[in-house]
Specification:
With 148 residues, this protein is of the alpha+beta class. It folds into two domains: 54 residues; 78 residues, 3-Layer(aba) Sandwich (Glutaredoxin). It is built from seven helices and four strands. A four-stranded mixed beta sheet has the order 2-1-3-4, covered by helices on one side. α3 crosses α4. The longest helix has 12 residues. It is elongated, with a radius of gyration of 17 Å.
Amino acid sequence: MSLTVEKILLEFSPRAENILPAIRQISLVFGYVDEEKTGKIADYFSVTKTQIYETASFYDNINTEKQPPFVVRVCFSTHCALSDAKKIIAEIENILHIKLGDVNHPKFKLEMMSCVGRCGEGPVVMVNGKVYERVTVSSVYEMLEEYL
């Protein structure tokens, strides 16, 4: 039996404190929360679509549009930014032939993200949720090799 937005929503009582967990679960299952899903969530919780969209779009780990197969996120918090995150982004752009924020590549999307709480292991890069720590310019190709 395949999951639907409605089936997922029924796992949560329609109270305000369950909005974010429901959005996260729907994003996890479907990969994103688009306008259609936003409307269903808003109806279920008796809030506006704007409230759902604002909540979903606030968090780096919730997508509001369909994503390419591989989303590469580079931490750009203070520690990672000071630890060569710019150079790592440039190397990823070079290897993948993509620019930061480009939404037109069929296979990859490159984004900056806020702190993931691993400052001692920075710079940090995530590919589809898989975390890579202590990334260096020289280790970027090896990290991305399995996705090429």
